[in-house]
Amino acid sequence: VIRNDYIMRQIEMLGAFVRKLLKRIENNELEGAETDADAASRQFVGVPLVVLENQPPDGFEAMLSMAGQFDYMRGLAAATLLEMRGKVARADGDERTAFRLWTNSASLLILCHDSPDEEVREMSATRLDNVVTALQEYEIPEFLHRLLTCHYEKLGDYARAEDHLFQAAAANQPDVFEWASDFYSRLESRTDQQLSAGNFTRDEIAESLNELDRLTHKPALRS
Protein backbone atom coordinates (compact mmCIF):
# COMPACT_ATOMS: atom_id res chain seq x y z
CA VAL A 1 0.00 0.00 0.00
CA ILE A 2 2.80 2.40 0.92
CA ARG A 3 4.59 1.69 -2.36
CA ASN A 4 1.39 2.12 -4.38
CA ASP A 5 0.75 5.48 -2.71
CA TYR A 6 4.31 6.58 -3.47
CA ILE A 7 4.07 5.53 -7.12
CA MET A 8 0.72 7.24 -7.55
CA ARG A 9 2.01 10.49 -6.03
CA GLN A 10 5.08 10.43 -8.26
CA ILE A 11 3.00 9.82 -11.37
CA GLU A 12 0.53 12.57 -10.46
CA MET A 13 3.39 15.02 -9.89
CA LEU A 14 5.06 13.96 -13.12
CA GLY A 15 1.80 14.39 -15.01
CA ALA A 16 1.36 17.87 -13.56
CA PHE A 17 4.86 18.77 -14.67
CA VAL A 18 4.17 17.53 -18.21
CA ARG A 19 1.04 19.69 -18.45
CA LYS A 20 2.95 22.73 -17.16
CA LEU A 21 5.82 22.22 -19.58
CA LEU A 22 3.55 21.69 -22.58
CA LYS A 23 1.82 24.96 -21.72
CA ARG A 24 5.17 26.76 -21.61
CA ILE A 25 6.10 25.32 -25.02
CA GLU A 26 2.73 26.35 -26.42
CA ASN A 27 3.40 29.89 -25.19
CA ASN A 28 6.94 29.76 -26.65
CA GLU A 29 8.47 30.14 -23.17
CA LEU A 30 11.34 27.85 -24.15
CA GLU A 31 13.98 29.14 -21.76
CA GLY A 32 11.58 28.79 -18.85
CA ALA A 33 10.66 25.32 -20.05
CA GLU A 34 14.30 24.24 -20.01
CA THR A 35 14.75 25.64 -16.50
CA ASP A 36 11.66 23.77 -15.29
CA ALA A 37 12.81 20.55 -16.95
CA ASP A 38 16.19 20.75 -15.23
CA ALA A 39 14.53 21.33 -11.85
CA ALA A 40 12.23 18.37 -12.46
CA SER A 41 15.18 16.17 -13.42
CA ARG A 42 16.90 16.96 -10.14
CA GLN A 43 13.66 16.31 -8.24
CA PHE A 44 12.47 13.10 -9.92
CA VAL A 45 15.73 11.53 -11.11
CA GLY A 46 18.34 13.08 -8.84
CA VAL A 47 20.63 14.37 -11.60
CA PRO A 48 20.82 17.54 -13.71
CA LEU A 49 18.99 17.35 -17.02
CA VAL A 50 22.26 17.60 -18.95
CA VAL A 51 23.29 14.24 -17.51
CA LEU A 52 20.18 12.61 -18.97
CA GLU A 53 20.64 14.40 -22.29
CA ASN A 54 24.19 13.07 -22.70
CA GLN A 55 23.47 9.50 -21.64
CA PRO A 56 23.69 6.88 -24.44
CA PRO A 57 20.65 4.62 -24.88
CA ASP A 58 22.44 1.62 -23.38
CA GLY A 59 23.64 3.57 -20.34
CA PHE A 60 20.34 4.26 -18.59
CA GLU A 61 19.88 0.88 -16.95
CA ALA A 62 23.18 1.09 -15.07
CA MET A 63 22.72 4.77 -14.28
CA LEU A 64 19.23 4.31 -12.81
CA SER A 65 19.93 1.13 -10.85
CA MET A 66 20.74 0.72 -7.17
CA ALA A 67 22.20 -2.50 -5.77
CA GLY A 68 21.72 -4.06 -9.18
CA GLN A 69 17.99 -3.27 -9.36
CA PHE A 70 16.59 -0.88 -11.95
CA ASP A 71 14.40 1.91 -10.53
CA TYR A 72 11.44 1.90 -12.93
CA MET A 73 9.85 5.06 -11.51
CA ARG A 74 13.06 7.04 -11.93
CA GLY A 75 13.38 5.55 -15.40
CA LEU A 76 9.87 6.67 -16.31
CA ALA A 77 10.60 10.16 -15.02
CA ALA A 78 13.89 10.31 -16.96
CA ALA A 79 12.22 9.12 -20.18
CA THR A 80 9.40 11.65 -19.78
CA LEU A 81 11.86 14.47 -19.21
CA LEU A 82 13.81 13.47 -22.32
CA GLU A 83 10.56 13.47 -24.30
CA MET A 84 9.66 16.95 -23.01
CA ARG A 85 13.18 18.28 -23.59
CA GLY A 86 12.93 16.96 -27.13
CA LYS A 87 9.72 18.96 -27.59
CA VAL A 88 11.54 22.08 -26.42
CA ALA A 89 14.36 21.40 -28.89
CA ARG A 90 11.87 20.84 -31.71
CA ALA A 91 10.04 24.08 -30.88
CA ASP A 92 13.40 25.85 -31.00
CA GLY A 93 14.15 24.42 -34.45
CA ASP A 94 16.78 21.93 -33.26
CA GLU A 95 15.58 18.82 -35.09
CA ARG A 96 18.79 16.85 -34.52
CA THR A 97 18.57 17.17 -30.74
CA ALA A 98 14.84 16.43 -30.71
CA PHE A 99 15.40 13.23 -32.69
CA ARG A 100 18.25 12.08 -30.44
CA LEU A 101 16.35 12.75 -27.21
CA TRP A 102 13.16 11.09 -28.45
CA THR A 103 15.13 8.05 -29.57
CA ASN A 104 16.70 7.74 -26.12
CA SER A 105 13.34 8.33 -24.44
CA ALA A 106 11.72 5.54 -26.45
CA SER A 107 14.41 3.00 -25.62
CA LEU A 108 14.12 3.87 -21.93
CA LEU A 109 10.30 3.67 -21.97
CA ILE A 110 10.52 0.16 -23.41
CA LEU A 111 12.70 -0.80 -20.46
CA CYS A 112 10.25 0.84 -18.02
CA HIS A 113 7.36 -1.20 -19.36
CA ASP A 114 8.79 -4.21 -17.48
CA SER A 115 7.91 -2.50 -14.19
CA PRO A 116 6.00 -4.58 -11.62
CA ASP A 117 3.80 -1.51 -10.99
CA GLU A 118 0.78 -1.30 -13.27
CA GLU A 119 0.66 2.51 -13.10
CA VAL A 120 4.25 2.77 -14.33
CA ARG A 121 3.53 0.34 -17.18
CA GLU A 122 0.43 2.29 -18.20
CA MET A 123 2.18 5.66 -18.26
CA SER A 124 5.19 4.13 -20.04
CA ALA A 125 2.87 2.78 -22.76
CA THR A 126 1.18 6.15 -23.21
CA ARG A 127 4.44 8.08 -23.37
CA LEU A 128 5.96 5.49 -25.74
CA ASP A 129 3.06 5.88 -28.16
CA ASN A 130 3.58 9.66 -28.12
CA VAL A 131 7.33 9.42 -28.70
CA VAL A 132 7.08 6.85 -31.48
CA THR A 133 4.46 9.02 -33.19
CA ALA A 134 6.82 12.00 -33.01
CA LEU A 135 9.68 9.88 -34.40
CA GLN A 136 7.67 8.87 -37.47
CA GLU A 137 8.75 12.16 -39.04
CA TYR A 138 12.35 10.88 -39.00
CA GLU A 139 14.10 7.65 -39.92
CA ILE A 140 13.90 5.58 -36.75
CA PRO A 141 17.26 3.85 -36.18
CA GLU A 142 17.55 0.10 -36.64
CA PHE A 143 18.28 -0.61 -32.98
CA LEU A 144 15.04 1.12 -31.92
CA HIS A 145 12.96 -0.69 -34.55
CA ARG A 146 14.41 -3.92 -33.18
CA LEU A 147 13.59 -2.96 -29.58
CA LEU A 148 10.05 -2.00 -30.58
CA THR A 149 9.57 -5.24 -32.49
CA CYS A 150 10.65 -7.26 -29.45
CA HIS A 151 8.54 -5.07 -27.16
CA TYR A 152 5.30 -5.52 -29.07
CA GLU A 153 6.02 -9.20 -29.62
CA LYS A 154 6.36 -9.61 -25.85
CA LEU A 155 2.97 -7.91 -25.45
CA GLY A 156 1.48 -10.33 -27.98
CA ASP A 157 0.79 -7.59 -30.55
CA TYR A 158 2.47 -9.37 -33.46
CA ALA A 159 1.03 -7.14 -36.17
CA ARG A 160 2.40 -4.01 -34.53
CA ALA A 161 5.73 -5.73 -33.94
CA GLU A 162 5.92 -6.56 -37.64
CA ASP A 163 5.18 -2.95 -38.59
CA HIS A 164 8.50 -1.90 -37.07
CA LEU A 165 10.33 -4.81 -38.65
CA PHE A 166 9.14 -3.80 -42.10
CA GLN A 167 9.86 -0.12 -41.53
CA ALA A 168 13.47 -1.10 -40.86
CA ALA A 169 13.56 -3.38 -43.91
CA ALA A 170 11.99 -0.75 -46.20
CA ALA A 171 14.67 1.73 -45.10
CA ASN A 172 17.39 -0.81 -46.00
CA GLN A 173 18.71 -0.74 -42.47
CA PRO A 174 21.51 -3.23 -41.72
CA ASP A 175 21.06 -6.61 -40.01
CA VAL A 176 17.27 -6.57 -40.40
CA PHE A 177 17.19 -9.88 -42.26
CA GLU A 178 18.91 -11.72 -39.42
CA TRP A 179 16.71 -10.60 -36.53
CA ALA A 180 13.60 -10.65 -38.69
CA SER A 181 14.09 -14.35 -39.46
CA ASP A 182 14.32 -15.02 -35.71
CA PHE A 183 11.06 -13.11 -35.20
CA TYR A 184 9.17 -15.22 -37.73
CA SER A 185 10.69 -18.43 -36.38
CA ARG A 186 9.25 -17.56 -32.98
CA LEU A 187 5.87 -16.75 -34.52
CA GLU A 188 5.81 -20.13 -36.24
CA SER A 189 6.01 -21.78 -32.81
CA ARG A 190 2.86 -19.98 -31.64
CA THR A 191 -0.56 -21.59 -31.79
CA ASP A 192 -3.17 -20.36 -34.25
CA GLN A 193 -5.11 -18.92 -31.30
CA GLN A 194 -2.07 -16.97 -30.10
CA LEU A 195 -1.43 -15.62 -33.58
CA SER A 196 -5.07 -14.59 -33.97
CA ALA A 197 -4.98 -12.79 -30.62
CA GLY A 198 -1.97 -10.85 -31.91
CA ASN A 199 -3.75 -9.85 -35.14
CA PHE A 200 -1.73 -12.31 -37.18
CA THR A 201 -2.25 -15.54 -39.12
CA ARG A 202 -0.04 -18.43 -40.12
CA ASP A 203 -0.50 -17.59 -43.81
CA GLU A 204 0.78 -14.08 -43.14
CA ILE A 205 4.06 -15.50 -41.86
CA ALA A 206 4.86 -17.05 -45.26
CA GLU A 207 3.69 -13.91 -47.09
CA SER A 208 5.79 -11.69 -44.85
CA LEU A 209 8.88 -13.83 -45.34
CA ASN A 210 8.56 -13.52 -49.10
CA GLU A 211 8.06 -9.76 -48.87
CA LEU A 212 11.00 -9.43 -46.51
CA ASP A 213 13.17 -11.35 -48.94
CA ARG A 214 12.13 -8.99 -51.71
CA LEU A 215 12.92 -5.90 -49.65
CA THR A 216 16.28 -7.09 -48.39
CA HIS A 217 17.41 -8.73 -51.65
CA LYS A 218 18.54 -11.82 -49.78
CA PRO A 219 18.03 -15.52 -50.56
CA ALA A 220 14.58 -16.79 -49.60
CA LEU A 221 14.22 -18.03 -46.04
CA ARG A 222 11.80 -20.78 -47.06
CA SER A 223 11.82 -23.12 -50.01
Radius of gyration: 19 Å
Report strand %. under 5%
Biggest beta-sheet profile: 2 strands, antiparallel
Number of helices: 12
Q: Which structural class best describes the helix and strand composition?
A: mainly alpha
- The total of beta strands comes to 2
Q: What fraction, in percent, of the residue positions are helical?
A: over 70%
Oligomer: single chain
Q: Order of strands across the widest beta sheet? A: 1-2
Run of helices and strands = HHHHEEHHHHHHHH
How would you explain this protein's 3D organization?
By secondary structure, the protein is mainly alpha-helical. The chain has twelve helices and two strands. It has helices spanning 2-26, 30-44, 49-53, 60-63, 72-91, 95-112, 118-135, 142-154, 158-170, 176-188, 192-197, 202-216; strands at residues 65-66, 69-70. The protein has a two-stranded antiparallel sheet. β1 and β2 form a beta hairpin. It starts with a helix and ends in a 7-residue tail after the last helix.
